[in-house]
Design goal:
11 helices, alpha+beta, 4-stranded antiparallel β-sheet, 45% helix
Length: 453
């Protein structure tokens, strides 16, 4: 049964990502066609074609390697004046522009070949529909459409989770009298960042007092308790003095006498703060609940997610290198390291198959996992470097900025931005992305990340 559930989790996640890829490409294709552009191909996957069907001027299909997708928009690269060959006319009198290949320098050759390949399929009727001829704002909409769809998918899924189940990363302490959710068995210095007791650790005052899960704290040294914040303040102010704790267990009143201890604790709840204070300590954790919210709350949370995503993208090469070291056994794999779609599928499979997670938590985890992948895909594609969508967006914005500057100076229109000249950067970026993807896929097969209970 667990094996079937494992496979089910993989299928659900992998299928959701493929659907997201398909919607991403629709985000490019639909506005491109709406603006009069010519889209000749819409494919999910790469490599050999498994199935395809031509509808109108567009061929729709699936390829063998389901790790991406693409749409072919005609005329992404403008002709270079230095490469213009003979200008002829066809039988109907339409002008035909031939692109001549260049043989000067490796990068020049790459650019020349790409441009020539692009223009070999362009007919005279295509001239007014070429992508590079579109207004700059149309180019931005077309290229931003794909990653924007991924961001929209993430927003919708986060919203569903936050509005129904709650945000697993945003817990607040229950109001009213504090109820014990956990008792720390021993005193662990905050600076050691561990959760298990070791030999030599002193027992915590809470464990010595015999407090258990579900106990409702009613008083502390004779003071009636109405909230956890009040209790925490009293404990901290008690230093290492005697404390009489009153509590209800299964509706029956009890009390325990114990000495709190002075311990070094964080000065605030801010995880980024390193400031500490020496205060009284007891060792109880109160019950909490997940915060729920609607669209506005989701927007704010996605802002935090965006900050984390930017940091993750900055450190991505370093973290991928860490995965490579884990593959060869030089170090253990960081459980916070990035994963590929293979790793995401394995995590989804484990999530669905484990017995210790309730069904609603499994569904929530899957939705959050799918949303997280979509958000990262969308944000990553907005990086202003080719071959990513952000590179084309940056080119379109630069094109308009040049034209505005020329108009202000009374100079001639500088023309279209030639994205082909950035192809060497695109090739380097593509190789880097391919290398990182391969490392992550191998890492997810050899040293996979597992969920823990």
């Amino acid at each position: 049964m667990s094996s079937l559930l494992y496979i089910l989790g993989i299928v659900i996640f992998f299928g959701a990502i493929l659907i997201s890829i398909g919607l991403h490409e629709l985000g490019h294709m639909i506005p491109a066609k709406a603006f009069g552009g010519k889209v000749t191909q819409y494919f999910i996957g790469f490599g050999p074609t498994v199935w395809s069907k031509k509808v109108g001027e567009t061929e729709y299909g699936v390829k063998a390697v389901p790790l991406g997708g693409y749409v072919k928009i005609v005329g992404m690269l403008p002709p270079d004046a230095e490469q213009l060959g003979a200008v002829t006319f066809d039988a109907d009198g339409n002008q035909v522009t031939k692109i001549r290949k260049s043989n000067t320098g490796m990068f020049t050759q790459l650019i020349s070949d790409a441009r020539a390949a692009e223009w070999e399929t362009i007919t005279p009727e295509d001239e007014p529909r070429l992508f590079y001829r579109m207004a700059w704002w149309k180019k931005v909409i077309v290229m931003a459409g794909g990653p924007s769809v991924n961001i929209a998918i993430a927003f919708f899924l986060f919203w569903v989770v936050f509005a129904t189940y709650g945000n697993v990363n945003d817990r607040v302490i229950d109001s009213g009298r504090p109820v014990v959710a956990g008792v720390q068995d021993c005193i662990i210095p905050a600076k050691e960042h561990r959760t298990t007791c070791q030999a030599g650790d002193a027992p915590s005052p809470a464990s010595l007092a015999g407090l258990k899960y579900g106990d409702e704290i009613t008083s502390f040294n004779g003071t009636s308790i109405t909230s956890y914040d009040q209790l925490q303040s009293l404990i901290r102010a008690n230093d290492d003095n005697q404390a009489v704790v009153g509590f209800l267990r299964n509706g029956v009143a009890h009390s325990a006498t114990v000495n709190t201890v002075i311990d070094t604790r964080p000065a605030s709840d801010d995880p980024a703060s390193t400031k500490t204070v020496d205060v009284g300590f007891m060792g109880i954790t109160p019950t909490t609940h997940l915060v729920t919210g609607g669209p506005l709350y989701t927007t704010v949370q996605m802002g935090y997610t965006a900050e984390q995503t930017v940091q993750a993208m900055i450190t991505l090469p370093q973290k991928v290198w860490g995965v490579a070291e884990a593959i060869v056994g030089a170090q253990d794999r960081d459980p916070e390291s990035p994963v590929s779609i293979v790793g995401g599928s394995r995590i989804a499979g484990e999530t669905v198959s484990v017995s210790w997670l309730p069904t609603n938590a499994k569904v929530t985890f899957l939705l959050m996992l799918i949303a997280g992948f979509n958000f990262f895909i969308g944000a990553f594609n907005f990086i202003p470097l080719l071959p990513l969508d952000g590179g084309h967006i940056a080119s379109a914005l630069w094109e308009e900025m040049r034209r505005i500057a020329a108009r202000l100076r009374g100079r001639p229109d500088p023309g279209f931005v030639d994205a082909a000249k950035l192809l060497p950067i695109a090739y380097v970026m593509a190789l880097a992305m391919l290398a990182m993807s391969l490392v992550l896929i191998v890492g997810d097969l050899v040293v996979p990340i597992h969920i823990t209970g």
